[in-house]
Amino acid sequence: MPNEIQIDGRTVGPGQPCFVIAEIGINHNGDLELARRLIDVAVEAGCDAVKFQKRTPELCVPANERDRIKETPWGDMSYLDYRYRVEFGRDEYAEIDRYCRERGILWFASPWDEPSVDFLEEFDPCCYKLPSAALTDHSLLGHLKATGRPLIVSTGMSTMDEIDAAAASLGDDVPWALMHTTSSYPSPTEEINLQMIGVLRERFDRVVGYSGHELGLQVSLAAVAMGASLLERHVTLDRAMWGSDQAASVEPGGLERLVRDIRVIEMARGDGVKRVYDSELPVMQRLRRVR
Asked: Which domain holds residue 52?
């Protein structure tokens, strides 16, 4: 049924446990040992998956940005060289694949271009995530669709018409879900608009999740309470670390609290069937008034 998808044999959708994704993204800063430590953080917090980003820099960096000088911990360099500096290759992803299997956690990535899809296919990923920046790239959508793998489509910085067009392009040939998000880092609370979770679910009859870039945990917990079937947050060892996504990320202790509280919310949400619980019977015997 459209409002459920399967990710590595796990049913994701309404009434199922929220599928929690720790986005490592590029917070590893090109350091494989740091990536392993972030995988450990996700495992220890109880996340379902970790997610990376994969780019072919010469395709993804606009021509007018390539020679711009960027200050980095490794010295001043062109923006294109910086993108290469933090990009993992085949050896690093082979180790990520091995280590995630060893730790018992799923991993996947957001490919930003078609060669990155072909690269990731070598590792048999459980699914893909289309980044918000690529929602209007229908060639990339078609390339992802051709893999037949489940696809999570991020909807930040997009109009409803653009989301409609992406949905029409995907059709029903592959299982896909939508991810509500606001593509600013960190996202201002007044621009998060969690009501879109319900709007997207009703409009497309698809699994809908929330990818949060806000500060704190409250909004992400509210998203789950409002029906988000997937929840994604960037993870870091320290928000003060160098990198564009670190400040809007969640540190290890926060990630543990987030997953813990999501499971409490799921338990409290119940099934919507009104009943008298055994724990209420003594109170009912003492206090019930009948006239």
From this structure: 5-287
Q: What pLDDT shows up at residue 1?
A: 43
Which residue matches tokens 């994704």?
Answer: 21
Q: Is 2's pLDDT higher than 60?
A: no
As a whole number, mean pLDDT of residues 125-153 equals 97
Least confident residue range of 153-157, 201-205, 251-255, 269-273? 269-273
SS3 category, 88 = coil
| 8 Å CB contact between 150 and 6 | yes
Q: Strands 10-12 and 5-7: what pairing? A: antiparallel
Domain CATH number, residue 57: 3.20.20.70
Question: What total of structural domains would you count in the chain?
Answer: 1
Residue 174 CB-density burial (10 A; 0-12 exposed, 13-18 middle, 19+ buried): middle
Rounded to whole angstroms, the Cα distance separating 201 from 209 reads: 9
